[in-house]
């Protein structure tokens, strides 16, 4: 029986083109990472192997040998030359010196928005875009240079976000070195709008009208589903709230918001089904599906990822149309060869690897696993619904583990729950996109029909992301990916043998009991009796002060973005916030305001006398009105008390008389509310972002600044008076700072002063969430130890 199964496998799947695909992929990837000469060497090895294969394999393997020979020749000559030309482009040399250049470029892809966290008076959001382009003429440092290479434009949203592929434009900026492993000659940092912009091709203009129509139609829905639908249909996440995007990532559903071969298989399958219902012939059906595929690619854009998705979707359609499994694997191998030769940068793209592996898993593993489940009594539909996400998870987990440094524990479950609505929401969204410009009423009906499916996906992602231990930490990089691959191979192979299945099951249970984070089985965070927690929210502030009532705490500041503070409060089990204090209105202190209300009751929002920047005050006051929550102003000397916690307002000692538009960052920082809290762990001084002048005012007024715990002002910047720190005389100093921030926080001078005072210093960029609780001889500190990554 085993021999028959292996023989069936060989008949069902033709592996002869696989060596050519692997050789072309490996040679190109090696060339991108190590140099053009490596691609030449690997290609030459492939050519030699092909010759040997042809000589000894005979006519039976002539096709496979010829394909391997062609792949080796392409990798050794044209691909290596393209890598060499990109590395030696004159713009690259100019970028090493950071010179100014004026370029005439042709836009290659639609602008990609770059989300930036809020900081100081800069509101969180999209302020710039990344645009791949190809150079036609170049002037660097006043001298014309010969270059026709690729560049990446980093440009402001204004004037650039609306450009379409195929348009030409002239721009100037500073050249910067490009990232390695790509065929990009340089990066151009642009500050001004483009000039002399040419027209876009008519089909790109038509596609832009359809995309804009979808966004307009989605405006009838609430914010979250309205932002999700364009992502599901077109891969456009520009209107998607960052919180939802983070939940999809944590729950293993982020692939749904990227255009993939799955989208195209769904649409092509719908067209083929319609053709079958009207009894159309195979040629007409294939043509109709092909036209649908091409039209969708134009609608989404000509990005390499979309072209890749088109090819992978075409493979799925080919297998679907022919009804033969054996046709898919050779088509996949051929597609890999063609795509890597057409655009060598795909060889090093994680998305490309995920697409290829996922398609291979669906071709090789999913049908066999589904058949196995059916033989064991599982209904066919459920069997396929389980086999497809499981196969996709198994083959892509090593890449995701190496790329993200995590392994999702809920990915299979969330994908199974999401699977039933993915096809309907995709088809409804595409129909709304096509119909909307000509028949808005019908478009709105279709959007409302897609609304429940979008809400379901958001619900699945939200609960998946909130599941304890939703993702396991895993070594990142190549070694992490290889370790994950080796583990999966052992599990899958061992599961085929009855005697080993029990051992595999026992081993998995042992791993779950020993490796799964303590938050899943025996929660170790938060520590019992915590009095204060400095949340790791990146480059910003968020402090939680416990009361004597479980689940009830005062929150001071909310960080730059919604997700981190929400995660921190959820870990702490806080569901009631009697007072939410915003020390001042800079973006890195108010950016997470909305998420504090999520699943929690908030008694009031408290602010100081500052009303700048104006956009921030409008945002805070508007949110208070929308939530029906009182907005109160704290004043010097005011005392607030709860069981187990009391607050006294120490500052600011003055209110600026300048209009908000005239206040600079220093003035806004110095208007921070300064609080002294009495907690079971000792006295806490919360200083916001007060700088030298405000600190001097507090000293001059003779305020009692002594405290056991100090929240260091302004993320540990150099604007801290040694006399101020000495007046506090803290035992413990907490610094809230983002990993890899570009502001130089915390300052070495501030750290040195605290060090000479013998203060225990903690940093959220190193320690993650940091809790303070009562100790035997003073406050004790417990670190969660999972710092947030660099700001985006």
UniProtKB/TrEMBL annotation:
Keywords: Cell membrane, Membrane, Transmembrane, Transmembrane helix. Residues 783-792 have a biased composition (Basic and acidic residues). Residues 768-792 are annotated as: Disordered. It is found in: Cell membrane. Its main location: membrane. The keyword Membrane applies. The chain crosses the membrane at residues 34-54, 61-81, 256-277, 284-302, 322-342, 349-370, 390-410, 417-439, 476-495, 502-525. It is a multi-pass membrane protein. InterPro entries: ComA-like_MBL, ComEC_N, Competence_DNA_uptake, Metallo-B-lactamas, RibonucZ/Hydroxyglut_hydro. Residues 539-739 form the Metallo-beta-lactamase domain. NCBIfam families: ComEC_N-term (TIGR00360). This is MBL fold metallo-hydrolase.
